[in-house]
Write a structure and sequence with these properties.
- The structure is a single chain.
- A 6-stranded parallel β-sheet has the order 2-3-4-5-6-7. A 6-stranded mixed β-sheet has the order 9-14-13-12-10-11, with helices on both faces. A two-stranded parallel ribbon has the order 1-8.
- The chain is built from 16 helices and 14 strands.
- Helix content is 41%, strand content 12%.
Length: 493
């Protein structure tokens, strides 16, 4: 049945849609003028910080209190620096350094960049405890596998980011770390025995005054054996609101993800999330058009009319969104940036294991670099640059770089590369080698022929006994590659 204008506007007041292009489309301008709560920026919307600042100014011209959010975790998941790679290491590297003052400073520096670009809520940090090294979607995005370490660095990141006037959104509640399924594709299950460890960093974030919490599309049987957290009143209202005492804005992870939309559709999942206790619906991925935003708005309004969603609950959600928007517009001017902080942090995260008595490092002549490139999860933009070859070539001109994906690292190809690398230092770059059998096979093949090779692991370093020298960067951000190149040439550590 037709919905009233007031009800449709109330439904719009909890939506954060994505959109295509680097300027606001007409439909988005129109909806913002009618009270749309906010937008989410993805890589497709971003060229550089100057362009983003123009874009967000255009959004605010339509609605001065619009909340502009993005996934800028630093490290592997970057949006503002998607074209260049992040100038700051990610959470795991910061956890390895374990200097909470450094984490706070990095987050404050990041917050300054976001604030200058007009972004008011950052869907970070990842407060997940990465206790499962085979996790396909968290990994380096977490500060580590120890709940206490993750808790103190989550607090530091929240403190730093919000001191720059940008709201933090701790994610993925109630904890995506101890899972083996990517919620973009299915429903991960959190084991009962791991729940308390998973919740600890979120408790700490709430103590720190985090402004928002982002839900994970996770099944937590000890609280709700049927509904994923995003759709569960027991998890969002019973656990997060009542037990943990969180009174800020609850925002969903991308509602189009299969873990929630698969069973209910994108509109049905959105209405159920608000009914469960969420305050804002994040829409991203490939569903970035007006039809999707209308579908969700209409489904939320219909749920009110049909009695599935109390209007008071929807009004309460809209209130929390407005309160966060009010905080964002009055939170002060952005802090001054520190251009060298990220590289300094990345250098501190590097760990070197020397297994050869021969003087393998420093490299003094042009090297041959083989980079083993796995397919990344959907949170990491495939176009984000990474690796050691490019920064090493700047320090050692003439360095050659070959990048191989799964299916390309055949025996014949590796033998050809060994011939090309003859007489030159060989550097093999891996990324989460423990999770990809083909990378392990390629490493064995290359190292059996060249035991004097250097191995650089830019993912989770499950082992450090590979190569004559093993270098673990604990991240694949641009600055992590630069830090590794410095170590290789004797300019670091």
């Amino acid at each position: 049945m037709p919905q009233s204008g007031d009800l449709l506007r109330l439904a719009d007041a909890v939506l954060f849609p994505g959109f295509a292009g680097r300027t606001p489309p007409d439909w988005l301008r129109r909806r913002l003028g009618d009270g749309l709560a906010g937008v989410v920026l993805f890589s497709r919307n971003i060229a550089d910080p100057v362009q983003v600042a123009r874009l967000t100014a255009a959004l605010r011209a339509e609605n001065p209190s619009v909340l502009v959010g993005t996934d800028e975790e630093s490290g592997e998941v970057t949006r503002l620096e998607v074209a260049t790679g992040s100038s700051r290491p990610g959470a795991y590297a910061l956890g390895v350094v374990d200097d909470v003052a450094l984490t706070e400073a990095v987050a404050r520096d990041l917050g300054g960049d976001l604030a200058r670009a007009g972004i008011t809520i950052d869907f970070a940090p990842s407060a997940d405890v990465n206790s499962n090294p085979d996790n396909p979607v968290i990994g380096l995005r977490a500060f580590g596998a120890d709940p206490a370490l993750v808790g103190r660095h989550t607090r530091a990141f929240v403190r730093g980011l919000q001191s720059a006037g940008v709201a933090a959104a701790a994610k993925h509640f109630p904890g995506h770390g101890d899972t083996s399924i990517d919620s973009h594709h299915g429903v991960p299950v959190v084991a009962d025995e791991g729940v308390e460890d998973a919740l600890f960093p979120f408790r700490e974030a709430i103590k720190e005054g985090v402004k928002a919490v982002m839900t994970g599309h996770l099944l937590v049987p000890s609280y709700d054996a049927e509904l994923p957290a995003t759709l569960s009143p027991k998890v969002l209202t019973g656990l997060l609101r009542e037990e943990l005492g969180f009174d800020g804005m609850i925002v969903t992870d991308g509602i189009e993800m299969a873990a929630v939309s698969g069973a209910y559709g994108i509109g049905g999942a959105s209405a159920r999330a608000i009914a469960a206790g969420a305050d804002a619906i994040c829409v991203g991925g490939e569903r970035a058009d007006e039809a999707t935003a209308v579908e969700i708005r209409d489904a939320i309004a219909a749920a009110v009319t049909d009695g599935l969603l109390p209007e008071e609950r929807l009004a309460d959600a809209a209130r929390r969104v407005r309160e966060l928007a009010a905080w964002a517009t009055s939170s002060g001017s952005p802090v001054a940036g520190d251009g060298g902080l990220g590289l300094a942090a990345a250098r501190r995260a590097v760990r070197v294991t020397r297994r050869s008595t021969a003087p393998v490092l420093p490299l003094t002549s042009a090297a041959y670099v083989v980079e083993l490139a796995p397919e990344m999860n959907l949170a990491i933009d495939r176009s984000t640059p990474w690796g050691v070859g490019e920064p090493l070539a700047r320090l050692l001109p003439g360095t050659a770089v070959t990048r191989l994906a799964a299916g390309q690292a055949t025996g014949a190809v590796l033998e050809r590369l060994l011939v090309e690398a003859a007489g030159r230092p060989l550097v093999i770059v891996a990324r989460d080698a423990h999770r990809h059998a083909w990378q392990g096979e390629a490493l064995r093949h290359l190292l059996s022929a060249r035991p004097n090779a250097v191995v650089v692991e830019m993912g989770l370093p499950a082992r450090s006994d590979l190569g004559a020298v093993h270098i673990a960067t604990h991240g694949s951000a641009r600055v992590c590659g630069q830090a590794a190149a410095e170590v290789l040439t004797g300019r670091g550590l």
